[in-house]
Amino acid sequence: MRNAGERHVTEQTGWGSCRRLVGKVAVVAGASTGIGRATALRLASEGAQVIAGSPAGEKAQIDSLIGEIIAQGGTAQGASFDATDDASLAALVDLAVGTYGGIDVFHANFADLRVIFEDSDAATVTDDVLDRTLEVNLKGMVRATRHAIPKLLERGGGAMIYTSSSASIVGEPVRPCYAIAKAGVNALVRHVASRWGREGVRANAVMPGLVVTPEKRETMPSDLQQQVLASGRSTRLGEVEDIAAMVAMLASRDGEWINGQSIAVDGGSTVS
């Protein structure tokens, strides 16, 4: 029996009924779990050849993902990378070019979500937490951009898609470093769109709200889920497939006239 996430992808895309990305090459940097995994599945289901990147310690999850894509008739290869290492991100891009001939889509979906638990407030947070958060969550995005843009230009343009967060636009009493990094990603999006938009590159960020991943659904108390739902503007909680669907649209011709935007996909929770 398929799990809920697999069922959602099959029903929405039919592994062939929506084929907007046939002939395209997509890199998903941060694909082992959650949003990245769902996005890699979605892009492959729409016909893209996928390079699925993850930290070295998550090889088992990537191998499982690649196996699932191939079993469904898709094309994908796994790779490891380190967002803090410029050469590592260059190698990830080079792998896509060497394996499939180029890049049309780069989804930068990585972040250090462990250090977030030490991200207290601006008066008490340590330099170590600040430095680590910016090193991965913001500087890593710049590194990815540095290596992906030239390859997108070689193909006549393409899509840079970043995972930001609703934390970048709402004020919170905690997690200042995370919010600063994600706000920086939104600024990076505007820069890339302004600098290379007329050369065919479109850059956008997706800002998820609270997304209940399959893992989180098992551990998040049901009363907390109901509390979040009751305080929102949607009939359900967010799922990883909601974000994957937006990424797929932005990657396709349907998103060709969307550039420089940070788009909230959050069930309306950031409506002002």
TrEMBL record:
InterPro entries, A to Z: NAD(P)-bd_dom_sf, Sc_DH/Rdtase_CS, SDR_fam
Keywords (A to Z) from UniProt: Oxidoreductase
Species the sequence originates in: Sphingomonas jatrophae
Pfam families: adh_short_C2 (PF13561)
Upper classification of the organism: Bacteria, Pseudomonadati, Pseudomonadota, Alphaproteobacteria, Sphingomonadales
UniProt name for this protein: NAD(P)-dependent dehydrogenase, short-chain alcohol dehydrogenase family
Similarity comment text for this entry: Belongs to the short-chain dehydrogenases/reductases (SDR) family.
GO molecular function: oxidoreductase activity
Entries under PROSITE patterns matching the protein: ADH_SHORT (PS00061)
